[in-house]
Write a structure and sequence with these properties.
With about 375 residues, the protein is an alpha/beta fold. It contains twelve helices and twelve strands. The two termini are about 20 Å apart. This is PhoD-like phosphatase domain-containing protein.
C-alpha cells in the first residue's frame, strides 16, 4: 500500500475499526485479579484504583507502541485518516456481551478509558472537544459525515458505542444521521460510502448462532474449557462474534429497517450507496439489487465492499468453504423487493491457482478506490 502511495498518493486512509488489538489487556496482572473472581463477583466488583491505573497504562502504552513502529506508523505520518473503532480497539466482543457483563463497573471503566485514548490517538480529540471536531451524536458515540471530494460523501456510523446484544445503534442515532444526510450532503453528490465495522451483507451464520447459544451452559460447566468459553462471562468463545453480525437474530429487524431507509434516501437523492466494512478477515463483495435493468437505474443496487485484514491472519480455508456453502439469495422486503447475495469475483488465488470458492478470499488484503 505504501508503495502505491509513493507512486500516486492517496488523499485519505479509512480505518474501519480494529486499528489495534487490545485483547491482551486481560493478561495484565491486575485484570487477572478481576478474572479470578466468579462471574457474579466480576459483575458486582468495584473497579479498584490499581486496576484503573493498569487499564490507563495499558491503553497508553499499546497506542504508543503500535502507532510508532512499522509500516502503519509510516502510513499515519503520510496519509490523512478517517477512523472508526470496533470491538478490538477496546476488547474482544465489547458491546455484544450480556447486559450484566457489559454494565459491570470494571467493563464500564475499560470502555471509558479505551474511548478516551481512541479519541486522542485516532482523532486527536478528547471527550469534551468531540462536538467541535466534526462528529455528531445522539448522546452516545461519535459518528462522522464528511466529504471525500466533489461527488462523494462518507458516513462513518459508530456501530460500537451504543451496541448491546439487542441493538447496534439507537433510533435517535439513525434519525440524526439521516437528517444530516438529507440536509448536509451537497447537491451533485453521486456516491455515498457508508462505513460500518461489520459487513451488513455476508453469508448467514444463524446455524452457528443457534448452536453456540444452545451449548453455552454445557461448555461453561466443563472443567478445563479454556479457549472454548469466553473468560469474561463463560459463554462460548465465538458467541460474541456471532452477536456482532447484522444478520444475528437480535439485529435483523434493525438491519432491514436501516437498509430500507438507505434505499429511500438513494431514490430521493439519486445517489449510489456503497457499504465498506472489514472485521471478517477476508475479502469479498456483497450485493443488494431489485434487478432493475439497466443496473445504473436501480436505487436498490448497493454493494458491500469487504476488506480485512491488512495485517491479521485470514480464517482457514475450511471456514471459507462453510461460508460459501451457507451463502444463498435472500429477499429483503424493503422499498421494493430486494435480492441479497455475495458477488462471485475471485477466479484465481493470489498465486494464480484456480479457486472453487469465488466469493470470499481468505488472504490479507486492503481495498482502494478512486474517482
Amino acid at each position: 500500500m505504501l508503495a502505491k502511495h509513493t507512486e500516486n498518493p492517496y488523499h485519505v486512509m479509512i480505518g474501519g475499526g480494529d486499528q489495534l488489538y487490545c485483547d491482551s489487556l486481560l493478561d495484565e496482572k491486575e485484570m487477572k485479579e478481576w478474572l479470578a473472581l466468579t462471574i457474579e463477583g466480576r459483575e458486582k466488583a468495584v473497579c479498584q484504583p490499581q486496576w484503573i491505573q493498569a487499564i490507563e497504562n495499558y491503553y497508553f502504552n499499546r497506542y504508543c507502541s503500535w502507532f510508532s513502529q512499522g509500516a502503519y506508523s509510516q502510513a499515519l505520518a503520510a496519509i490523512p485518516t478517517v477512523n472508526m473503532w470496533d470491538d478490538h480497539d477496546t476488547i474482544d466482543g465489547y458491546g455484544s456481551y450480556p447486559e450484566s457483563t457489559q454494565k459491570s463497573h470494571t467493563m464500564s471503566v475499560i470502555g471509558a478509558v479505551s474511548r478516551r485514548f481512541y479519541l486522542l490517538f485516532q482523532h486527536h480529540s478528547t471527550p469534551t472537544l468531540v462536538p467541535q471536531h466534526g462528529f455528531f451524536s445522539a448522546g452516545v458515540g461519535e459518528n462522522i459525515l464528511t466529504s471525500l471530494g466533489p461527488s462523494t460523501s462518507l458516513l462513518v456510523l459508530d456501530a460500537r458505542s451504543e451496541r448491546t446484544k439487542l441493538m447496534v445503534c439507537s433510533e435517535q442515532t439513525y434519525d440524526l444521521a439521516f437528517a444530516k444526510m438529507y440536509h448536509e450532503i451537497p447537491n451533485g453528490t453521486r456516491h455515498l460510502l457508508v462505513q460500518i465495522g461489520v459487513p451488513i451483507a455476508y453469508p448467514r451464520l444463524v446455524f452457528a448462532e443457534s448452536l453456540m447459544g444452545s451449548v453455552g451452559n454445557v461448555l461453561g460447566s466443563i472443567a478445563g474449557a479454556k479457549g472454548v468459553v469466553n473468560k469474561l462471562n463463560g459463554e462460548p468463545e465465538l458467541l460474541d462474534d456471532l452477536n456482532d453480525h447484522w444478520t444475528a437474530k437480535t439485529h435483523k429487524a434493525e438491519r432491514n429497517k436501516f437498509l430500507t431507509r438507505l434505499q429511500n434516501f438513494a431514490n430521493d437523492r439519486k445517489i449510489r450507496v456503497t457499504f465498506i466494512s472489514g472485521d471478517v478477515h477476508c475479502a469479498g463483495m456483497g450485493r443488494f439489487t431489485s434487478k432493475i435493468s439497466p443496473p445504473e437505474k436501480d436505487p436498490q443496487l448497493m454493494y458491500q465492499v469487504i476488506s480485512s485484514a491488512i495485517v491479521n491472519i485470514p480464517p482457514p480455508d475450511g471456514v471459507i468453504s462453510l461460508l460459501h456453502f451457507q451463502d444463498k439469495v435472500h429477499i429483503l422486503e424493503g422499498r421494493v423487493k430486494t435480492y441479497e447475495d455475495m458477488y462471485p469475483m475471485f477466479t484465481t488465488d493470489v498465486d494464480g491457482t484456480p479457486l472453487q470458492n469465488d466469493k470470499l478470499l481468505p488472504r490479507r488484503n486492503y481495498s482502494h478506490g478512486y474517482q
